[in-house]
Amino acid sequence: MAIVLGIESTCDETAASVVRDGTVVLSNVVATQFELHARYRGVVPEIASRAHIENILPVLNDAITGAGCSFSDLDAIAVSQRPGLIGSLLIGVTAAKTLAWAFSKPLIGVDHVHAHLYSVMLDQPVDVQFPAIGLVCSGGHTALYQLNNWHDVKMIGSTIDDAVGEAYDKVAAMLGLGYPGGPILDDLAANGDAKRFRFPRTRLGRESLDFSFSGLKTAVLYHVRGVPGKPQRTTPPDEQETTDIAAGFQAACVDVLLEKIRRAVEQRAAKSVIIGGGVSANSGLRAAMARFPLPVFFPQRAYCTDNAAMIAGLANEAFRRGEFAGLEMDAVTNSRISREVVAS
Q1: Is 55 inside any structural domain?
Q2: Which of 42, 59, 83, 110 is least enclosed by beta carbons within 10 angstroms?
Q3: Residue 238's closest CA among 277, 192, 195?
């Protein structure tokens, strides 16, 4: 049974985790930067990079201590090599290469998006049936994947504008709420009337597996502030209206995600569905998928947002196949999961 240390630093979370045999999480340490970026209502790359530098060593030490092992006990060092903010990625990659060199351990580079799909395997008994349809939905990603197994993954659909989590953050900002917007709007939506305001669902073409949330976001903006060229709204929404806007917005997001998953399952004859990423913690999405006719797998909520356990877990698959990187491994801003090319 392999023991792998995972390191995550693609955006604004500095994380380290020790995972045994790809599924048993021995430690999972995450240093968040919410307070640093809250005033900007989004991640500032330069601030994120500096925070990673400050956090990386304490987080690594806490992960090793929490797992009850030493660096020498590890079988491999894994790191989220891509995709992400280049300054943030470099901190994690440099730390991983240094540890791999210092302790003579194999180095494994992991795709962060791919790892979000694998996160359903952590600390829970699951039996994913392949081929599976995977959805990664977060502040930076909204895309559909076909998985034939854990190392054969192809993108089959993606957002053409905003990621769904990004839309949540922007709508929360319009309503004068905090950051990140996803958990706040989800909590409000639970007590709101989703039928009071019917916001648009953008489905694109009849067979399309792509997403678009720009029109939905704009519709909420016009509702809150008024339509350009017409008399503008002079008073902000009151508490009840804000709650109902949150419910209507969330219902539109969930409807679109559910419809695209249905299409993908039908087109690819999938046997199960995997959902990962920060928005996979959303209660509305989980409730909607509970009625889906195929097995649907969500990560435990601790592994929905960015974490290093998913990095170490997926790295175990590469470790078993003997797929290692050299110390010349680079940080890369784009994903290695390519878009499937379909002949017209």
Answers
A1: yes
A2: 42
A3: 192
